[in-house]
């Protein structure tokens, strides 16, 4: 299953006609390209530009999305899922290092960092956009790490009493602190150190599987 297929549409098809998946993919790809373009970006992006680049009509876009907000969030949620898929190596340490490593690469090497910063700013400034961002995109990315942690707890790698939501906050919070505030690198050395330090506080002392 591709990343585009794994991200459910934010706005369901509101007309009887079945959605054309080729056009759908072209639209989401066009949105990502325009967001990544420094001359356009989030504030400059328009439905007209998306339609022109995707080779579809504006009516086609409005048939599947209520407006720009839903379109932007679905497009970038699909990109995030593609850039940092959920690994399943059987080791919580390895899974976290792979997931956070891919996230760090996307944020620093694939232009995603600038777009994510813009999305976060927009989410804080515009309540309606913020609600959609948190519900449809942030929850999915938090869910990716939560999936890794829940599997690890089932395998006995993590203590049963650990608050996994706080662990997610610690991991993602450190990454986005570097992206948005300190500007320090989100590289392999950082990801490895972050993973090791967080796991030290939540590991099940009775199990060394994946934690050595």
The CATH topology of the largest domain is what? Tetracycline Repressor, domain 2
Low-pLDDT residue spans = 1-6
Number of strands: 0
Name the helix and strand elements from N-terminus to C-terminus, one letter apiece.
Answer: HHHHHHHHHHH
Amino- and carboxy-terminal Cα gap: 32 Å
Helix content: over 70%
Characteristic terms for this protein:
11 helices, mainly alpha, single chain, Arc Repressor Mutant, subunit A, 212 residues, Tetracycline Repressor, domain 2
Q: Secondary structure elements and their pairing?
A:
Layout: H1 3-6, H2 21-36, H3 41-44, H4 47-54, H5 58-64, H6 68-83, H7 92-109, H8 112-125, H9 127-154, H10 164-182, H11 188-202
Helix pairs in contact: 2-4, 2-6, 6-9, 7-8, 7-9, 7-10, 7-11, 8-9, 9-10, 10-11
Task: Walk me through what this model shows.
With 212 residues, this protein is mostly helical. It has two domains: 65 residues, Homeodomain-like (Arc Repressor Mutant, subunit A); 119 residues, Tetracycline Repressor, domain 2, CATH 1.10.357. The chain is built from eleven helices and no strands. Helix 8 packs across helix 9. The longest helix has 28 residues. The relative contact order is 0.12. The N terminus is likely disordered.
């Amino acid at each position: 299953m591709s990343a585009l297929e794994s991200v459910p549409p934010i706005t369901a098809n509101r007309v009887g006609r079945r959605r054309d998946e080729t056009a759908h993919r072209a639209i989401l790809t066009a949105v990502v390209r325009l967001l990544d373009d420094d001359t356009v970006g989030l504030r400059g992006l328009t439905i007209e530009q998306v339609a022109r680049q995707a080779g579809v009509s504006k009516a086609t876009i409005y048939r599947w999305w209520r407006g720009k907000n839903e379109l932007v969030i679905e497009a970038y949620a699909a990109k995030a899922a593609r850039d940092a898929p959920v690994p399943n190596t059987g080791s919580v340490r390895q899974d976290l290092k792979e997931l956070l490593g891919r996230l760090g690469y996307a944020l620093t090497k694939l232009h995603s960092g600038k777009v994510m910063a813009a999305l976060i700013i927009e989410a804080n400034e515009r309540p309606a956009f913020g609600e959609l961002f948190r519900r449809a995109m942030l929850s999915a990315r938090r869910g990716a790490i939560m999936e890794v942690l829940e599997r690890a707890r089932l395998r006995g790698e993590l203590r049963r009493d650990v608050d996994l939501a706080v662990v997610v906050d610690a991991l993602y919070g450190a990454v986005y602190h570097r992206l948005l505030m300190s500007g320090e690198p989100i590289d392999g050395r950082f990801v490895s150190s972050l993973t090791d330090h967080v796991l030290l506080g939540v590991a099940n002392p009775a199990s060394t599987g994946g934690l050595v």
